[in-house]
Amino acid sequence: MISMDNDAPVRRSDPYLHPGVYLKEDFSAPRRDPFSTGVPVFIGLCKSTPDERVNKVHRLRVWSHFLSEVGRTYQDCILGYAVRGFFQNGGTRCYVIVVRDLNPGTVEKALELAARFHTIDLVCLPDLGEHRNVAFDLQQLVVNHCEDAGDRFAILDSWRGDKSDDVRQQWSAIDGRNGAIYYPWIRVRCFEEEHGHRASTILIPPCGHVAGVYARTDDSYGVHKAPANEVLEGVLNLERHVTNEEQDKLNPHRINCLRSFPGRGIRVWGARTLSGQDSWTYVNVRRLFLTTARWLAWHMLDVVFEPNDSRLWHRVEGELQQYLLDLYQQGALKGRTAADAYYVQCNARTNPKEVIEAGQVVAEIGLAPTTPCEFVVVRLIYGTSGVSISGPTRPEQNL
Fold this sequence. Notes:
Layout (H helix, E strand, L loop, with lengths): L39 E5 L12 E4 L3 H7 L7 H11 L5 E5 L5 H11 L7 E3 L7 H18 L3 E5 L6 H10 L5 E5 L2 E4 L11 E4 L2 H14 L9 E2 L5 E2 L5 H7 L4 E7 L3 E5 L13 H17 L10 H21 L7 H4 E4 L7 H5 L6 E4 L9 E7 L2 E8 L6
Parallel strand pairs: 1-3, 1-4, 4-5, 5-6, 6-11
Antiparallel strand pairs: 2-3, 7-8, 7-10, 9-12, 11-12, 13-14, 15-16
């Protein structure tokens, strides 16, 4: 502020009395983003959780919150390992619901609790990997929940000790677009016991670590990037080392393998959904459409109860055009021009009289999502002049 009174005395309460650099500490609350991705709910068992915290939703932003909000960790706390693995791999926010058992009714009630939180877009039940007798039905229940909610995706585990034939059977028994299976189990460091002794390692299902990879990839690139060829942090080894020949058989069955590569660490080496539909082969493609639906549900709330006429249609179409243009500029959609990558229509054709009378507004969108480059082919050409290399190229017929 500049004062025009030159005779005004210097205010000694003013901390800035001479030219220089001043450090001012300003602690403000972190900005809350109401629309984000890579936010899982973990549903599972924890015998140290007090009764009053069971069947309650706990919001965690750091791993230490598990200890203060959920319960004490112990050596075979699979739920705790999954949540720890999520934060180790770049996750920044998750929800935890502790249940007393894995009966269908109990799990269904937990999923109903999770359905109230629209910030959730991933679902993990790490304890199912040790309960084969109920896991098929419960994993299908989780996938159905994601389908019904229309805004989330299930990260499923194989079972401990499974071989290739076993996990292929699991894929054939579960149906749905909004889910993916990861194989095999992973080996991590154990929690410390109460007496302070640290056991060496333990085998656990990978869903928590993989959920962290989803969150990390979303944050670095966006949901349009396949959450694959990413290092799994905090993983010491794999239960089984999948060979190229084994993955040749698993890939067509949409099983996402975890692979160990010398000098490159243990990585997620697959990004395929459970779906047998070619349009929904890839995790990132399916999640792009789910995220678009979530964005629409969130950002279109302010048009509720507006007059349903051409002005509203034009407004909806304009906001959708801008959102999809942003996706195109991020590389989420393919096409030489934006017109090749997407289209939006919200007009009299999509909103005939019967739609208006029903109190609805219908917008039609089409997206051309980019698909991951799974197979890179380098051709070695032998000739009289020696060996030359052509490529790499991407064989579209294999995708």
